[in-house]
Design goal:
- This protein has about 220 residues and is mainly β.
- Helix content is about 10%, strand content about 35%.
- The strands form 5 sheets. The chain has a 5-stranded antiparallel β-sheet with strand order 6-5-4-1-7, with no helix packed on it.
- The longest helix is centred in the first third of the chain and has 18 residues, at about 1-20.
Amino acid sequence: MIRTVTRAVIILALALLSLAPPVFAAPTDAGGAAQAAASGPGLFVQYTAKDSCTVYLNYPKDGVTANSTFTIPAGHTLIWRYNVNADWAVVSYSARAHKIFPWWGFTRRECIGVSVKQGGYPAGRAIPDRIREGRSNQTTSGWRPVSFTIPAAAIVQPDLAVRRDATLRDDVNFVIGNVQAGWHVDVSARTRSNGHWVKVYVPHARRWGYVERSVLG
């Protein structure tokens, strides 16, 4: 009798165990770490404009032409993306996004104040001191280098008109400049993302980078 009861108890316990949900170990590979990084503040952390910020279409340097500007008023919110050097940063102004081109551009770091209250990131922090590194959800550190100076490539189609406004990107899609509709660019045979992005030289910006193939005439 005792053996029968004991056997029945064991069978019942095994049946209950088979219904329990499986337990998986936490990921320890690079992919798991990247997911953890992505759960942080995100790519686009917001800051206040400490002073009125003048934002340039392209990085101001000798030879850059048609370098128009717009202003982010003091007290307004901007998105910091990365520092070009000790003096300049790339920012985005959400109030213009997808409505008025450009909304990305270059401004002096000294006009950027501290972070505002937002999900996953505390208020009151200054922008990072990192140079040519932006937040990323593709790396374990949560940061990725910006290829601000793209190497030249052989030109296969010179002086091609751009059909619509576009951002100029590096190899991993950080914004490194802007291209206005009607400007002419020199097109190379280099592409990425299955041909979606095409490597070009922009004489107005005096810079190489990638634009979407759809903007080329």
